[in-house]
Amino acid sequence: MQKLANRLERLGTETAFSVAQAAAAWKAKGNRVYPFHLGDINIPMAPHIVEAMNRAIADGYTGYCPGPGIPQLREALAEDIGARRGMEFSPDNVVVMTGGKPVITKFLQAVMDPGQEVIYPNPGFPIYESQIEYLGGTAVPYRYVPTESGFAIDLDQVRASITPNTTAIIYNDLQNPISAESTAAEREAIAQLAIEHDLWVLSDEAYFETRYEGVSSSIAALPGMAERTVILYTFSKKFAMTGSRLGCAVAPLEIAQIMSKLNTNDESCTTHYVQWAGIEALRGPQEPVQQMLDVLKERRDVACEIVNSIPGVHVAVPQSTFYLFPDVTEAMERKGFTTVGEFATAALENTGVSFCTREHFGRRLPGEERQYIRLAYSGIETADIREGLGRLREWIEA
């Protein structure tokens, strides 16, 4: 029998999709499902963006285009991303890709050799861990500690994790799944460690503009960081373009050139007509962006109110992203569950509420005692949030 490559054993997945399969199977049996598991957005893409995409197709923009992206989009991205971060970028710093995910892989391909270490957040987006290990690196997790306002990076653990073999750190401010946002001091501490140890930084800024209060800041804008930081940008969250698969890396020129070459090797180019839709998203009317944020904020407020009324469940109100990461330790004890996976299955079968757990976002670290779940409210209407979380509360109270 033909043998497959050994590296496939190291390849993980985005585990939220496995939860989606279980939810779909439960729904197929005639049950009601309240989908809090997947961070998709059930708000339609703005009409002017759809029209721009259709117009580009009608105008014949359906063939190949430059590997790093069409010049018009790279220019628009350089201007927009730079202005919002107080930075200046050239279009040559921008490499357009099929969403944000490829930025992770191509960043690692550019800066990490097999055997080198990359420090990454855990809990965190599972593709970090998957791709570090798949590409032959050593994935070194750093943890978060709970605070009254959410979570903070364990900076002492980050410092202790850096070795002479460490080549990069992945930093996800406005974090998925825990919605953590760095203080200015925390951001500066991570930057200082990167400079002190001469590390590359991947700054995952997928949720930079998905926020309800406050103003976002980029680690790339701190002194000494622009030359060592790659920004991950995506159209998925801000413009509800998850299925359009459009994003980019904003990188120092030497990394941008490598990523452009990787684009040519991997997919030739990003879909031509989708890039014209991206230009319209950036330069066209911005009212739909604010309207979507208003809807998401209402959902956040309702979800937080109900979650914090459930016995044994509590969560800080996040200022950004569209996720809640409540502590369910006491609720699980109340219901007699010892594993959060069993708790999630029972919740689905007894209430129809479907959600991911802490286990879906990286391997549990030594010393972790609290139990958490992730609730995504981007793909569920406010009325269904009330109904579903109300049923979850009744089940836990019973």
TrEMBL record:
Q: Which domain of life is it from?
A: Bacteria
Needed cofactors, names only, are: pyridoxal 5'-phosphate
State the CDD domains in the record.
Answer: AAT_like (cd00609)
- One Pfam family, short name please? Aminotran_1_2
Aminotransferase class I/classII large domain boundaries: 45-392
* A molecular-function term among this protein's GO annotations: transaminase activity
The UniProt keywords, alphabetically, are: Aminotransferase, Pyridoxal phosphate, Transferase
Q: InterPro entries from the xrefs?
A: Aminotransferase_I/II_large, AspAT/PAT-like, PyrdxlP-dep_Trfase, PyrdxlP-dep_Trfase_major, PyrdxlP-dep_Trfase_small
Which Gene3D superfamilies does this chain map to? Aspartate Aminotransferase, domain 1, Type I PLP-dependent aspartate aminotransferase-like (Major domain)
Which family does the similarity line name?
Answer: Belongs to the class-I pyridoxal-phosphate-dependent aminotransferase family.
Q: What is this protein called?
A: Aminotransferase
Q: Which species expresses this protein natively?
A: Zhihengliuella salsuginis
Supply the source organism's classification.
Bacteria, Bacillati, Actinomycetota, Actinomycetes, Micrococcales
